[in-house]
Design goal:
Layout lengths: L21 H4 L3 H4 L1 H22 L10 H12 L3 H14 L2 H13 L17 H38 L4 E6 L2 E7 H20 L4 E2 L9 H6 L5 H11 L3 E2 L10 H30 L2 E3 L1 H4 L14 H24 L9 H6 L2 H20 L1 E3 L1 H9 L6 H13 L8 H9 L6 H9 L5 H8 L10 H4 L3 H8 L1
Parallel strand pairs: 3-4
Antiparallel strand pairs: 1-2, 5-6
């Protein structure tokens, strides 16, 4: 009988983010793992105790010394492997993760000058007071310290690619068909610009929090200490944590802000997905060559000539998984039955996988982009084989002359359609057609000098717009 992998120690990872792709997703462990959740809970609980005593919210209790504040703040700072194991041990007894956090803190106050104040730990708190603030801190940290910096690096990669190739002409393909030429740089700049806009949106997103009791009414606070302005205490504490105070909630903070953040992250992911599929297509067209050394290892297991675009395919797939998870989070978290249900508890534990697959995709995109060489000759050959794309230029000049009163410029679209529709036109045929149009000399010479390589309009100049877009996103 085959061995059961479930019995192997250390445990074998179930998901690829904790196994095969651990290195790429690892930066999120400090923010979105179960251990990170418990560390954030320790931060909230200890800071709440400090805040209450510092604000004099409970009459008759003394303020803390600097050493006592340092002692409390050291509790989450020192939370490591031993602390994780100890908390798990306590939770096995309490069968309640937040209550286990309370007991964990009280153990560290035992035998210190804070032991007489131990009951202040978790006072006037429901578990969701601690959890909503913890998740807000976790998501904020993950987005601002890990995910956004990674996205900005992709944008910089694209911006560099755009600037380096601003003047490299390339055949466009609208609907997959040859169309008005552009430059490779301008097309890469489009993606950098789109992503920079999403960065600015995400930078402006709010992370909300509340600490107002079992049903959001401050009932326990008001009956116990009626003389304290508990709304002000709550607001100042939430803002002290670097979050935005939500004054109106049920037992839970409504999670609408989470839905907003995840929708923005998912949208950025879909733009990245578009980038991955476009680069994949440019590779298939020969516009980019891949360096095998940059991709790593074997290209194809049976066809040694191939260098497969695996980084972009990996990114594409992981962005789809990430987008699906983020969409599910956004849809689920905005609903809570009446004053509370527990669907959000297990749902929020999947924030890590949602952002993890996105981070993995970003890593693969960057590695893929770093392994590309531009093949300007392939693009030039493609342009040379599609002189019919100049039909737009000729038609536009004729139309302009016609409305300005020049005779013989009638039916420009129809005349170009007859020449170019469904057939290839070479340079000689296009020039012969232009010569027979009876154009004024200036326009005739301008069109005769035009080639698919030079018919790129302002494309190179448009890349300059990245200067402001990048500046605003950083």
């Amino acid at each position: 009988m085959a061995h059961s992998f479930a019995d192997i120690t250390p445990p074998i990872a179930l998901t690829p983010l904790d196994g095969r792709y651990r290195a790429q997703a690892a930066p999120l462990v400090d923010h979105l793992s179960e251990a990170a959740l418990n560390r954030s809970r320790l931060v909230v609980e200890t800071e709440w105790m400090i805040h209450l005593l510092d604000a004099g919210a409970i009459p008759g209790l003394r303020t803390l010394t600097e050493d006592e504040i340092a002692l409390l703040r050291a509790i989450p700072e020192d939370f490591g492997a031993e602390g994780i194991a100890e908390h798990a041990e306590i939770e096995r007894e309490t069968v309640h993760d937040v209550k286990a956090i309370e007991y964990y803190i009280k153990r560290r106050l035992a035998g210190t000058s804070l032991e007489p104040l131990a009951e202040v730990v978790h006072i006037f708190c429901t578990s969701e007071d601690v959890n909503n603030l913890s998740y807000a801190l976790m998501v904020k940290g993950a987005i601002e310290r890990v995910w956004l910096p990674a996205l900005r690096e992709v944008i910089e990669d694209l911006a560099s690619l755009a600037r380096e190739n601003a003047e490299v002409p390339m055949l466009s393909r609208t609907h997959g068909q040859p169309a008005t030429p552009t430059t490779l740089g301008k097309e890469m700049a489009v993606f950098a610009h789109r992503l920079a806009r999403q960065v600015r949106r995400i930078e402006a997103d709010e992370y909300l929090g509340k600490i107002n009791g079992a049903t959001g009414t401050y009932a326990a606070h008001a009956i116990s200490v009626p003389g304290t302005d508990w709304q002000q205490v709550s607001r100042s504490f939430v803002e002290h944590l670097g979050l935005t105070w939500n004054p109106l909630t049920t037992q839970i903070e409504s999670h609408d802000w989470q839905a907003e953040v995840y929708a923005d992250v998912a949208r950025a992911g879909r733009i990245l997905h578009n980038l991955a599929t476009d680069i994949w297509t440019y590779i298939s067209l020969g516009y980019f060559r891949q360096r095998l050394s940059a991709q790593g290892g074997t290209g194809s297991s049976t066809m040694p000539h191939k260098v497969n675009p695996i980084r972009f395919e990996n990114a594409e797939a992981n962005l789809e998984i990430s987008g699906a998870l983020l969409d599910s989070l956004s849809q689920t978290l905005v609903t809570s039955r009446l004053q509370r249900d527990l669907t959000d508890s297990t749902t929020q534990r999947n924030i890590g996988p949602a952002l993890g697959h996105s981070l993995l995709a970003i890593s693969n995109l960057r590695r893929g982009l770093a392994g590309l060489d531009v093949d300007a000759e392939a693009m030039a050959a493609d342009l040379e084989g599609n002189w019919e794309v100049l039909g737009e230029a000729v038609q536009s000049v004729m139309r302009t002359l016609g409305v300005q009163g020049t005779g013989g410029m009638d039916s420009p679209y129809e005349r170009l359609k007859e020449l170019t529709r469904g057939q290839r036109v070479d340079g000689a045929a296009m020039r012969e057609f232009i010569e027979g149009l009876g154009l004024p000399e200036a326009e005739r010479e301008r069109l005769l000098a035009l080639t698919p390589h030079s018919y790129v309009g302002y494309a190179a100049r448009l890349v300059d717009h990245l200067g402001s877009a990048q500046g605003e996103s950083s």
